[in-house]
């Protein structure tokens, strides 16, 4: 049998060993050696194992003995979070490293605009939430001590019972001592606590081996093999699947949430993370650790239920089973395992909480109400360290008080679940902060407050039992006698499991309030900037918030930095910054970038909100510079620009396509025109040729023709040749004009004369009479151009009107006027006009309008266009007049010529 | 959301493999979660019907899924760790 004294001696020896390991690690780290171990993924993974506390070591077996496989949900949740490291943890670690976050409260306050109020709120909630958890550790150590004491044969007069309150007290003192010694050696919470981390890694190995050893002993030593164990499990009281679906889901979710939000888990996951790559290694290694820890839980529970007397505390099966089988050294080893689980948790939890308390509560109060301001000289590091040490004592004593208050009798798992429910309230705000830019500080404060109040009312207070914190009538009839406010059946919903009930209401209403208030509140600029940086952490990890630091003198900043960082570190930092600014002597310029870097450096020691407040005291307020806003707007601007570019391009493509289509249509029509012209021109050439041949044959062959007849036939031949010649002349003229070989004969003249000549000529050449309406006042314009060619154009246009105007009383109005430096002549008849389809073609060669007689070859308007082009003018068809109208534009004569 | 200009449409085979592996890394937790929620479908013991799931089956199932998830995670780590490290540093 192990005596209590032996046990205490082994325990003390173990603690001394831990001290030695921690001390050696600190020394090695200080000398820069042992990095391969201190910064290895193995140590990182093992340090995560502080998730497995005495709750796991003792409580899981008790849990399994009471409720079967449900205990495993507490390990499934964290396994899921680790396997899904890419989604949440990767972001958290990156944010933690780039913003030098010191705790979960620091992260939340930093995200929501470095709000000190939020930091205080989260800190208080975390302290309250974790207190039951620390009590749980004290209770488990005391329980395990008592089981050894009760088994002691020569019990002292105490009757084999130890004074549990005293035992718990001494355990608490020991833990506080260790934490103070190794947890507050260096101020910079961002630097890893090598001593603590390595001690925790050792404890992680010890507790895993201890539990595996007990498990192996139970399976192969007691039950007689794997198959027999499984058979025994199926025969036992917990031999059937009996987990409620609601509890299974709710507890998995709760454990996953707590794994992220627990201050101590945040400490080891994010703050103590030395290398982002370790996270992926831990993504499979840590679930493996959890699985091994839970592997033998059910066998131990079942064998314990089987072998141990009725009424034994199932929470202590891990110890009492080996003891009952006479395996004293195994029991001792198991005790050390449980001791390790409890101590490592308390150490890291108090470390994390004390950082939060000193950074977010003590320091701001000291800065506000202390007589000294930051400009004063003198080291403030002792204030920070002292406040941390006092916080450690405060937190551990709170845990001790909870232990005494709750009577130390509850099941371990039930206490743990309450704690989980409290810290899980951070989850909506935390996730909202890193994934949703719209989350605001007001929303976060409201959501946290509501969720936490619900947790206190539905989970924490009822845990003391009816009549303790809440009166029995409140349990029966609800708060203020309102039935729908009963703490175990909110809103009148009865029959839910108590844990499911509390988790469901507190988390969902928390999230709902957080989102709703965020939607309807408006964040401050710093808050929006921080939000953008947190959410887009992988896009721009660099700092993007500036100080208008021209007011701040570098000397003041130096004095302040020395007081927080220590003289040597501060001088080193300032020297490095000065070199970055390419100043090799003296202090660096207080540029926004430098002040920013300094604030980050200070944040690593005292938290973002405090560092921000201290720098603000000197600098006189943060300013959000235009560059910062641009950086935030950058992403959306890029998207916007890109989409507008796309729009422009697609519009250009549509335009080009339309142009191509119309060009293609025109080409097709031109090709048809060419074909029809060829047949037309052969016809045009053939008709005169036929008559010329016929009449010349008559002249040659027929005898006895009178001179009159000869004259008539010869004159027919003559006129046909003239027609042919005119056709060929037109073609030649056009080809000369098109090739630009024509030489212009420039003259000065008046438009009226040109039109007179054209009208006279056109009337003489045509028998059909058209009434011409002119306004001679407007025609008194001097031209400097090739007048003969211009006359040709007008003759052509007037002749066309004479030929093709279909009105009964054909009339052509000619109007001339001057607009700017252009002369405009409109010729409009009262005919039917030209349909839209043909308008595009009338100026093309050989185009003849369908359905119109006449003998032209379709060259007139083409020639007109070429002539006008040579004369630097323009001819166009007028679409908005009733009849057929053409507009001729010409440049005005240069007055100085 | 469309990709910003400048990201290529086609990747070389190695990068393509890496991206698909990262897809697997993202999907694995959802898969494991799905498997762990399967017990919700199991019958809860009922005095009238004796067809409850024996504890040994439940144990084998839950721990089997656990082990398979860890194995997948381990294999993905082996295949992607080096490239993730390169991307993080570069």
Automatic annotation (TrEMBL), chain A:
**Where is the protein localized?**
Membrane
Q: What InterPro entries does the annotation carry?
A: HATPase_C_sf, HATPase_dom, His_kinase_dom, HisK_dim/P_dom, HisK_dim/P_sf, Na/Glc_symporter_sf, Na/solute_symporter, Sensor_HK_Regulatory
- So what EC number does this one have? 2.7.13.3
Q: What class of enzyme is it?
A: transferase
Per its record, the protein catalyses: ATP + protein L-histidine = ADP + protein N-phospho-L-histidine
Q: Which residues form the Histidine kinase domain?
A: 680-894
Q: Where, by residue number, does the polypeptide cross the bilayer?
A: 6-30, 42-65, 71-89, 117-136, 167-184, 196-220, 248-266, 286-309, 329-353, 386-405, 411-436, 443-464, 502-522
Q: Which UniProt keywords are listed?
A: Kinase, Membrane, Phosphoprotein, Transferase, Transmembrane, Transmembrane helix, Two-component regulatory system
Q: Which family does it belong to?
A: Belongs to the sodium:solute symporter (SSF) (TC 2.A.21) family.
Q: State what protein this is by name.
A: histidine kinase
Q: What is the lineage of its organism?
A: Bacteria, Pseudomonadati, Pseudomonadota, Alphaproteobacteria, Rhodobacterales
UniProtKB/TrEMBL annotation, chain B:
Q: Does the keyword Membrane apply?
A: yes
**Membrane-spanning parts:** 21-38, 58-77
The alphabetical list of record keywords is: Membrane, Transmembrane, Transmembrane helix
The name of this protein is Uncharacterized protein
């Amino acid at each position: 049998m192990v005596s209590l004294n032996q046990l205490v001696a082994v325990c003390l020896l173990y603690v001394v060993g831990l001290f030695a390991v921690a001390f050696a690690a600190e020394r090695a780290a200080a000398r820069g050696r042992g990095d391969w171990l201190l910064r290895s993924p193995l140590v990182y993974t093992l340090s995560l194992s502080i998730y497995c506390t005495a709750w796991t070591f003792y409580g899981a077996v008790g849990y399994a003995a009471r409720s079967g496989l449900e205990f495993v949900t507490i390990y499934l949740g964290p396994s899921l979070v680790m396997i899904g490291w890419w989604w949440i943890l990767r972001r958290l670690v990156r944010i933690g490293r780039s913003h030098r976050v010191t705790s979960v409260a620091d992260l939340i306050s930093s995200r929501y605009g470095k709000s000190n109020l939020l930091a205080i709120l989260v800190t208080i909630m975390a302290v309250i939430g974790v207190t039951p958890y620390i009590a749980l550790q004290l209770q488990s150590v005391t329980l395990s001590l008592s089981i050894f004491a009760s088994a002691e044969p020569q019990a002292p007069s105490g009757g084999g019972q130890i004074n549990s309150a005293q035992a718990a007290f001494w355990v608490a003192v020991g833990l506080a001592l260790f934490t103070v010694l190794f947890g507050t050696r260096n101020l910079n919470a961002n630097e890893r606590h090598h001593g603590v981390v390595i001690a925790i890694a050792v404890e992680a190995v010890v507790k895993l081996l201890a539990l595996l050893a007990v498990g192996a002993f139970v399976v192969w030593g007691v039950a007689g093999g794997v198959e027999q164990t499984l058979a025994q499990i199926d025969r036992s009281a917990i031999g059937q699947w009996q987990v409620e679906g609601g509890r299974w889901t709710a507890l998995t979710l709760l454990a996953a949430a707590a794994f992220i939000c627990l201050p101590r888990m945040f400490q080891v996951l994010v703050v103590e993370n030395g290398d982002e790559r370790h996270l992926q290694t831990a993504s499979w290694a840590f679930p493996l650790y959890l699985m091994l820890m839970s592997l033998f839980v059910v066998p131990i529970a079942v064998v314990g239920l089987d072998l141990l007397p009725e009424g034994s505390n199932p929470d202590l099966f891990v110890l009492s089973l080996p003891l009952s089988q006479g395996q004293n050294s195994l029991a001792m080893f198991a005790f050390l395992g449980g001791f390790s689980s409890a101590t490592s948790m308390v150490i890291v939890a108090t470390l994390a909480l004390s950082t939060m308390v000193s950074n977010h509560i003590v320091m701001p109060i000291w800065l506000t109400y202390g007589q000294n301001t930051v400009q004063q000289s003198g080291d403030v590091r002792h204030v920070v360290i002292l406040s941390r040490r006092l916080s450690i004592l405060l937190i551990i004593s709170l845990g001790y008080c909870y232990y005494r208050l709750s009577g130390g009798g509850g099941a371990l798992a039930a206490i743990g679940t309450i704690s989980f429910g409290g810290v899980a309230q951070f989850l909506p705000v935390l996730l909202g902060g890193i994934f949703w830019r719209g989350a605001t500080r007001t929303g976060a404060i409201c959501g946290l407050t509501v969720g936490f109040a619900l947790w206190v009312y539905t989970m924490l207070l009822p845990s003391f039992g009816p009549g303790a914190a809440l009166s029995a009538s409140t349990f029966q009839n609800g708060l203020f006698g309102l039935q729908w406010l009963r703490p175990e059946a909110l809103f009148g919903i009865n029959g839910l499991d108590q844990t499911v009930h509390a988790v469901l209401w507190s988390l969902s209403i928390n999230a709902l309030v957080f989102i709703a208030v965020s939607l309807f509140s408006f964040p401050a600029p710093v808050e929006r900037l921080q939000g953008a940086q947190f959410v887009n952490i992988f896009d721009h990890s660099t700092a993007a918030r500036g100080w208008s630091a021209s007011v701040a003198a570098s000397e003041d900043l130096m004095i302040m930095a020395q007081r927080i960082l220590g003289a040597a570190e501060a001088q080193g930092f300032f020297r490095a910054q000065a070199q970055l600014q390419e100043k090799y002597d003296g202090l660096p310029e207080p540029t926004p970038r430098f002040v920013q870097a300094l604030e980050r450096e200070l944040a690593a020691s005292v938290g973002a909100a405090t560092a921000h407040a201290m720098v603000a005291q000197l600098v006189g307020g943060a300013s959000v510079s235009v560059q910062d806003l641009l950086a935030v707007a950058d992403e959306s601007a890029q998207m916007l620009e890109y989409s507008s570019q796309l729009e422009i391009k697609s519009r250009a493509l549509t335009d080009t396509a339309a142009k191509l289509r119309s060009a293609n249509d025109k080409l097709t029509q031109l090709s048809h025109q060419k074909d029809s012209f060829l047949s037309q021109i052969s016809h045009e050439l053939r008709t005169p040729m036929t008559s010329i041949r016929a009449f010349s044959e008559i002249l040659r062959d027929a005898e006895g023709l009178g001179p009159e007849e000869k004259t008539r036939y010869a004159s027919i031949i003559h006129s046909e040749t003239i027609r042919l010649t005119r056709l060929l002349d037109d073609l030649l003229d056009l080809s000369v004009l098109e090739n630009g070989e024509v030489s212009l004969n420039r003259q000065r003249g008046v438009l009226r004369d040109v039109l007179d000549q054209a009208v006279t000529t056109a009337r003489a050449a045509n028998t059909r009479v058209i009434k011409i309406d002119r306004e001679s006042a407007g025609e008194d314009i001097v031209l400097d151009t090739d007048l003969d060619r211009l006359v040709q154009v007008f003759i052509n246009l007037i002749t066309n009107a004479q030929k093709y105007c279909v009105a009964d009383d054909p009339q052509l109005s000619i109007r001339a006027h001057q607009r700017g430096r252009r002369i405009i002549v409109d010729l409009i008849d009262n005919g039917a006009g030209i349909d839209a389809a043909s308008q595009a073609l009338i100026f093309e060669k050989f185009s003849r309008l369908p359905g119109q007689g006449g003998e032209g070859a379709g060259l007139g308007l083409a020639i007109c266009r070429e002539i006008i082009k040579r004369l630097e003018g323009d001819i166009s068809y007028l679409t908005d007049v009733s009849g057929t109208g053409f507009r001729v534009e010409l440049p005005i004569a240069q007055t100085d010529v | 959301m469309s990709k910003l200009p400048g990201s290529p449409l086609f990747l070389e085979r190695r990068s393509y493999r890496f991206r698909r592996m990262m897809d697997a890394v993202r999907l694995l937790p959802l898969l494991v979660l799905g498997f762990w929620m399967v017990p919700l479908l199991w019958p809860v013991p009922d005095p009238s019907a004796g067809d409850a799931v024996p504890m040994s089956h439940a144990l084998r199932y839950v721990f089997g899924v656990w082990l398979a998830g860890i194995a997948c995670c381990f294999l993905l780590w082996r295949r992607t760790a080096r490239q993730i490290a390169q991307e993080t540093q570069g």
